Amino acid sequence: MAEVERRVCEDRISSLSDDLLVQILLLVPTKDAVATTFLSKRWRFVWRMLPRLEYRETETSDGNINSVWWFLEDSFRLHKAPLLERLCIELGPQCPIYVNPVKWVAKALDTRVRWLIFRLLWKGEPIRMPKSLYFCKTLERLTLSYKILVDVPRQVSLPSLTELDLFCVVYKDEDSHVRLLSSCPVLKCLKVTRNRHVEDNVRTFSVKVPSLLRLDYKADTTFQDSDDRFLVIDTPNLLSLHIFDIFGHSFSVEYMPHLVTVVIDVLFPNENFMRSLSSVKYLALSPFDIMVPWCDAVNNYSRLVECMIFLSDQDLCESLLVLLSNCSKLKVFMVDSEIGQYANRGPGLWNQPSSVPRCLSSHLEIFEWEGYAGREYEKELIRYILENSKCLKTAGISPNSTCSEEKQKMVIELESMQRVPTSVLLSSARMLFRR
């Protein structure tokens, strides 16, 4: 019996190797991992070898926020891992301004950190990162958010950095971001967010990174001096480009022959920019009314296979067909008219084109319309696409009405289109009503 009791009480986990115990602690939040120091002598120092640490503000059940600065202060100084794979520090307004977060970042850099996430939302002024940040040879991914002052030295080198995220930070001067980007010879992904509530000291944001493959750029459209903002993109190897909310900006774009995916949301295009998109395969435009000149400026999107349009003006349906005429290999075409369903409730105009776009007769396989309101011009356009799409496999129409009777009426109208006498083969098409 004693032997059985001894086996029941045996602590087999504590007998595991340090490496296995570290892997177990990586499955729980950092705060819980540190708490294991009180379990026994065996656990006292295990957490100090964790290669990944996260310090985030947490919300209590009564809605209050528990700041982690004090916990970070007490625990991080005890950390002894020779290599830090990932450090995440997120501090909110509850963090006192007398705290010195820079020393924590400096220590992480001394431990050869590979991935650093630092988010500071305290009530104090933006802080400078330690100079060693700009010379870290092991740093591969870096995220800086909010109350960070990007003050880049004249001589800087980040030879391993592949991903950089600059979220609403402040730059010391107009050239700080230029020096930072030029110091990253293997940078692959860059995300930049600028906010109207943050004066970041930059008028011309220039992205000249030969190694860059993906660029996400977002700037608040309500900048008071948005007309004085410029964006320069010179990235010849770029594969993916996402631009959001740069309404009113001026910009210059060099040719990007390898561009595959483009997502545009609120942008005033120019001819140079439009032509730089001629090689894309996947394109999303919002709102389409601003993009209408693209239909005429670029007469051949020869590689485009998937296109999504956010339609805010019903009078632009004919422009959709102009766009389709320029996309000879298009296989997937999606329209979302929900954003404009209250903007213009007039009858709309529809003139059937004299020739059928090539993509409809030979390539289009998937057609979707989100936010269908049953207006006459919508019905005519959808009817035209269904009747002339010889390769169509799936057609998904999603009504925007919340009234069951009105929705049922739309469904009946749409289903009747499949029974219209036509020589087009629609036997494999499926009408998908997802609401």
UniProtKB/TrEMBL annotation:
Pfam families: F-box, FBD, LRR_At5g56370. Transmembrane segments: none annotated. InterPro entries: F-box_AtFBL13-like, F-box_dom, FBD, FBL13/AtMIF1-like, LRR_FXL15/At3g58940/PEG3-like. Residues 358-428 form the FBD domain. CDD domains: F-box_AtFBL13-like. It comes from the Eukaryota. PANTHER family: EMB|CAB62440.1-RELATED, F-BOX/RNI SUPERFAMILY PROTEIN-RELATED. This is FBD domain.
